[in-house]
Amino acid sequence: MKKLILIIPLIISLIALSDLFAAEKKVKKVIHSTPPIDYAGLENPLTQADPKTLPDNDPNILAGKRLYMATCAACHGIRGDGKGPEADGFVTPVKPVNFIDPETIAAVDQGYVLWRIDEGGQDEPFYSAMPFWKDDFTETEKWQIILYVYKNAGVSPKAK
Amino acid sequence: MFKRILLIGLISILVGIHGNVPTVNSQGLTVVSNLIKGDVPTDPRSPAWDKAESNIIPLSSQIIAKPRTFVLPKGKSSVREVNVKSLNNGKEIAFLLEWDDMTENSVLDDTAVYRDAVALEFPVEIPSREAENPYFGMGHEEVPVNIWQWKADLEGGRDRVVPLGASYPGEGLKYSVDWYQGRLYDLPAKGKERKGPVEDLNAERFGTLTLQDSQDVMGKGGWSGGKWKVVFWRSMITRDKDDAKFKKGSIQPLAFAVWDGSNLEKDGQKSISTWHEIKVE
């Protein structure tokens, strides 16, 4: 019994310690690059409202949803959680972004998201599978997608 | 005895709860090229492959560069994973790639479909750190990749009658258009011929695929029961500066591409992976 009394606290301590390290590992730090001057601080010309608060039947939200489902959901998922049907093969260097994660689009403004849509991830520092969509959408369509991305994920852009 | 059982049970419960913590892996898989004695197997059905570790690589539709797979009739590529094994004997390295495909598309005179194919991709130079990796999608400027592409239509001896880089027998003298891949190739210098159904290529970005003058990669593939099995093999070190290098203990990126001809996949319309890594024992 003495052995048991000694060993059990030891096991619990070891597990607690390893959990502490695991918790430390789970602390993510997403470092966002600085967007080019053309995109820095851009505001959405379609509305100044927080996209999260727009109604489901808002025309820009409906248009953004249609475009998002046709092109973005394949990787970023219908819910915006980064688990779309095409996400599995794109594992390095980064997986498709989970928009629900508060460290992603909630940590940047809409101008930053426009930059990422325009330029994609093929170049430094991303080298990701994100295509560049600069020539595929009109400016209005891109802002509509951005509104829907925030609305769908249930997060707000970073406050100025 | 009771105390011992109690102790074991308690430890199991605690470790079990702890072990249930989910982990996330975004580092890719490490394919180990297992070291063997004797020749590397060059037949996909060789029992020697049973000695190699099996790795299932997830694939996605190529949606980065145009033409994207969105424009295929089904809106996506077909093949979702490829199983890879590797063996080496210190001098030669071999890869076995296996994937499910319900249709064998190895004859190009059927205009309703394209050829099946598979490719391996490596950096030409082994990067010293991840930040120096070429872009997984065909490399990028001044950081080229070496691509080994096996084409089903070149199996069964057809590699001997189709000029290097071409799709049909007797095409062109100085250059050849590969209609199925939509590319214009310069044919290599006279005397350079195919050695098998694999083309040894370089690229520095989407749309820059180039045939090497020195074709150093061999291959052999076969389709049976809804599955392709293709072996690639090559000397670990070649004289060609544009070839990927392999040496004992080396670790470097590798990526994969698969084309399903019955899904009208050709050129950039294919299933792809991002970088994983190959470790040579």
Please indicate the percent range of residues of chain B in DSSP E strands (runs of 2 or more): 25-35%
Instruction: Choose one word for the global shape of chain B.
Output: globular
Let me know the number of strands of chain B. Answer: 16
Helix content of chain A: 40-55%
| Count, helices of chain A | 4
User: Which regions of chain A contain 5 or more consecutive residues with pLDDT less than 50?
Assistant: 14-27
Radius of gyration of chain A equals: 20 Å
Secondary-structure content class of chain B:
mainly beta
What does this structure look like?
- The complex is a heterodimer of chains A (160) and B (281).
- Chain A is built from four helices and no strands.
- With 160 residues, chain A is mainly alpha-helical.
- Chain A has one domain (33-153): Cytochrome Bc1 Complex, Chain D, domain 2.
- In chain A, helix 2 packs across helix 4 and helix 3 (110-119) packs across helix 4 (139-153).
- The longest helix of chain A has 25 residues, at 2-26.
- Chain A is globular and about 35 Å long.
- The model of chain A is unreliable at 14-27 (pLDDT under 50).
- With 281 residues, chain B is mainly beta.
- Chain B has one helix and 16 strands.
- Chain B has one helix spanning 2-19; strands at 30-35, 55-58, 60-61, 81-88, 92-100, 117-123, 145-151, 175-178, 183-186, 198-203, 210-211, 218-224, 227-235, 251-259, 271-272, 276-280.
- In chain B, the strands form two sheets. In chain B, strands 1, 2, 3, 4, 5, 6, 7, 10, 11, 12, 13, 14, 15 and 16 form a 14-stranded mixed sheet that branches.
- In chain B, strand 4 (81-88) and strand 5 form a beta hairpin.
- Residues 8-25 and 171-184 of chain B have low confidence and may be disordered.
- At the A-B interface, helix 1 and helix 2 of A face helix 1, strand 3 and strand 15 of B.
